[in-house]
Specification:
The protein is an alpha+beta fold. It is built from 2 helices and 4 strands. Helix content is about 20%, strand content about 30%. α1 runs antiparallel to α2. Bound molecules: adenosine-5'-triphosphate and magnesium ion. Adenosine-5'-triphosphate binds next to loops.
Amino acid sequence: MSELSKIEIITGMSKLSKLKTALSKIGVRGITVMQVLGCGVEKGTQEYEVDENEIMELLPKQQINIVVETSKVDKVIETVKQELYTGHIGDGKIFVYGIDNVVRVRTGEEGNDAL
Ligand SMILES: Nc1ncnc2c1ncn2[C@@H]1O[C@H](COP(=O)(O)OP(=O)(O)OP(=O)(O)O)[C@@H](O)[C@H]1O
Ligand SMILES: [Mg+2]
């Protein structure tokens, strides 16, 4: 069975449409999007230097989950970076996980066949 990975992207609310188009073009065959709250190292501020006593302010973000064959992870990351990069605070973060299996309920297929 080929190896599978989950790529979780957390970013601001504005770029989903462009990202969907780009991911579709490189052969991503499924996507899950959640509205979440989050902050990164700036604790929700627009400052690079954040006081350790600063309270975290959670801002609305989108979490985009994609499962692909592990061999495609680099291509997906490259595409996401291209679409999300502005060079400013809050461009987003990408987390990559190994996953054990995928089962497609309709057909009973598993692993990469299920994708
Ligand atoms: N260490 C972390 N653990 C869990 N979620 C995180 C972590 N860092 C960032 N996130 C999530 O990712 C979102 C986007 O992070 P963000 O782009 O602000 O990262 P950053 O490390 O603060 O980088 P930057 O300095 O470019 O803003 C956050 O709003 C949060 O939901
Ligand atoms: Mg940040």
